[in-house]
């Protein structure tokens, strides 16, 4: 029965293991999470729509419209002809630096954005005695978290978080999740009222009252809309322009999603929008849980078949515990066939099970 489990045990997912099985597993996961013909997660999501990728020398739309309708600090640019969006990346670790590089390569090409990309740096003193921020601005390289890669001269490192965010209407959050609660609290009333956020952060804020998704934390604490960008993305590989893909999860504003897609897309980084923030964020977060299970199996030298069983069971248990199985009908059906709970013929009926998105409502509120 287990050999019937195509998602994990017999597909190309495990046929390309190299010297780093963890990385291979991670990099194989787009098959699971980002492929419209295969993903149990995206079986609940609307069909992908492609957004044009900016090409060399190409310009974007002439003007960008401010996004949120909240009142508050808006930088004084609302409604002006020739308005240009300003992007700030909050975070400058491995992925934060790569995100800044991707965005900076695009703001140079898109007329609707200021060239400059500000990057907030959690200041550190290097062994040389120099401040990390100073070194980044002098060498155009994050020598600690992304050595050897030029970020783009239009990336400006800034150790003052309030200064870094104050003029930006597009905020990219990319720091380890455990720091986000504190960061958000420090940013209350400091960001523009019309700012749009996107979270690249994998993980959840787990409080005594229950888990809180990071996009929800940002939205609720800062009073701004927050999209997400998730994928099976190893920052160092994207930094050297190896092909990868990611998904932007957006709530209801397609125009915003298109702007994020334009900001991140390059010929080697393919980004597709899906109207589902929680689904995309959960995929990115749960993927790391699965990756841990895969790593444990590797460490115990138990083989790929065992890995297929354990990772699938891990995901099934998490979804089942949360009462979310109906949100992932393809995954649930295939798993239940594999463990003998359903007959193989059930696979042809899975698509009739409609995901019940309302199940997620409670879990997307922070307590
Ligand atoms: N690295 C990747 O390949 C990758 C890929 C996809 C998603 N992500 C996600 O991106 C997020 C950031 O990961 P990363 O790899 O850029 O981080 P990292 O581990 O490379 O860097 C850690 C960053 O946290 C900063 N930091 C340290 N203490 C801090 C504090 N008290 N407050 C605020 N910041 C502090 C450090 O200065 C550094 O910039 C994570 O949620 C991760 O899951 C990472
Ligand atoms: O291990 P993390 O949390 O830095 O994240 C790595 C990425 O999720 C790889 O896709």
Automatic annotation (TrEMBL):
Biased composition (Polar residues): 58-67
Reactions the enzyme catalyzes: sn-glycerol 3-phosphate + NAD(+) = dihydroxyacetone phosphate + NADH + H(+)
Enzyme class: oxidoreductase
Region of interest called Disordered, as start-end residue ranges on this chain: 54-80
GO biological process: carbohydrate metabolic process; glycerol-3-phosphate catabolic process
EC number(s) on file: 1.1.1.8
Coiled-coil regions listed in the entry: none
Bilayer-spanning residue ranges: none
InterPro entries: 6-PGluconate_DH-like_C_sf, 6PGD_dom2, G3P_DH_NAD-dep, G3P_DH_NAD-dep_C, G3P_DH_NAD-dep_euk, G3P_DH_NAD-dep_N, NAD(P)-bd_dom_sf
Superkingdom in the source lineage: Eukaryota
GO CC annotation: cytosol
Listed GO MF terms: glycerol-3-phosphate dehydrogenase (NAD+) activity; NAD binding; protein homodimerization activity
Span of domain Glycerol-3-phosphate dehydrogenase NAD-dependent N-terminal: 87-253
Glycerol-3-phosphate dehydrogenase NAD-dependent C-terminal domain boundaries: 276-307
Keywords associated with the record: NAD, Oxidoreductase
Family classification: Belongs to the NAD-dependent glycerol-3-phosphate dehydrogenase family.
NCBIfam families assigned to the protein according to its UniProt record, in alphabetical order: glycerol3P_DH
Protein name: Glycerol-3-phosphate dehydrogenase [NAD(+)]
